[in-house]
Design brief:
Length: 328
């Protein structure tokens, strides 16, 4: 288990407020007597419209359409890169009718926000899929290619504002890794953190930032409409259906998948954990989930149980090392 750190004061206050609100809701929606097959609540630890929310609602649809779970609800708990939702989630107790969406973003936020809880405090169920980040500029940007931006960035890093999600999240890590590989000191980046892809989009279109970093699906509609131009994608290899070169293809040796997965609260029994894993494995075989993978350009990355737990431990260590190395 990773060493716990003292919570930041503001995070503690925010978490307390959210917990108080959740307690009131939970009191009127008791799960007493419910089973994961009859009722399941999925926490999306972000605002509606973001990547975790999208994955949670695609999961919800596939579980319903496949008649795997009778009643599936999604609850949004935004804030601090998912760590407010995480803090609330681990306080639920051993409730097998709850799961939370998580992923790479939360790993970074745990470290940067000095979260008092981490993913070791949950019960890993399954990694679902991976998607990728894009580096994006407005259609009227003078930067036609990644090389154009990098050339200007090297000359004066602080004069080029880059917008992305929360500090320590995937967007921030990708910006830092790209800077380092491009010959820019990551500590010199002018990185502006936003609550989600929607705010990054607004900042791009208003020219508050010059370059945006977020998940491909956050920008897909605007790319297809011609309002934004994607300069690079963070995949290791070209992605079918996405007409954007990878960073690696353009001489920047960086690839950063953004995985999404599910955890349960701590303390559930082995039988309850097995039931949740079975539910997810059944869901992953439904036509609805396969269609979600295709529509969202996600890569199937199903990994369950103890293997997923080992993956989380290794990936958290990797993310921590990157944050320390880049000085983020």
């Amino acid at each position: 288990m990773r060493k716990k750190r003292p919570a930041l004061a503001v995070l503690g206050v925010a978490a307390t407020l959210v917990l108080a609100g959740f307690a009131a809701v939970d009191a009127s929606n008791s799960t007493s007597g419910a089973t994961p097959r009859s009722k399941l609540t999925v926490t999306a630890p972000a605002a509606p419209g973001g990547g975790w929310d999208l994955a949670s609602r695609e999961l919800q649809q596939a579980l319903r359409a496949g008649s795997i779970v009778n009643n599936v609800q999604v609850v949004n708990v935004p804030g601090a890169g998912g760590t407010i939702g995480l803090g609330q989630f681990v306080e639920l107790g051993a409730d097998p009718t709850r799961m939370m969406m998580t992923g790479t973003v939360m790993e970074g936020a745990i470290t940067v926000n000095n979260s008092p809880v981490d993913l070791d405090d949950t019960t890993p169920i399954a990694r679902l899929a991976e998607d990728y980040e894009v580096l994006i500029v407005p259609a009227d940007s003078p930067y036609e290619t990644l090389d154009d931006f990098v050339e200007a960035w090297r000359e004066n890093p602080r004069s080029h504002a880059i917008g992305g999600g929360g500090l320590g999240g995937t967007d921030h890590l990708l910006a830092g890794l790209t800077a380092r590989e491009a010959g820019v000191d990551p500590e010199e980046m002018n990185y502006i953190a936003f609550a989600g892809g929607g705010e990054v989009l607004t900042a791009l279109l208003s020219h508050t930032v010059e370059l945006g970093v977020s998940g491909y699906n956050d920008f897909r509609d605007q790319i297809e409409a011609g309002n934004l131009r994607a300069l690079a994608i963070s995949a290791e290899e070209p992605v079918d259906g996405i007409d954007t070169p990878t960073l690696i293809e353009q001489g920047i040796d960086v690839a950063l998948p953004n995985w999404r997965g599910l955890v349960a609260p701590p303390g559930i029994t082995d039988e309850q954990r097995r039931e949740l894993i079975d539910i997810v494995e059944e869901m992953a075989q439904t036509p609805e989930w396969q269609d979600a993978l295709d529509r969202n350009k996600w890569v199937d990355a199903l990994l369950t149980g103890d293997e997923f737990a080992a993956f989380i431990s290794e990936d958290q260590a990797r993310v921590d090392a990157v944050i320390e190395e880049l000085g983020l």
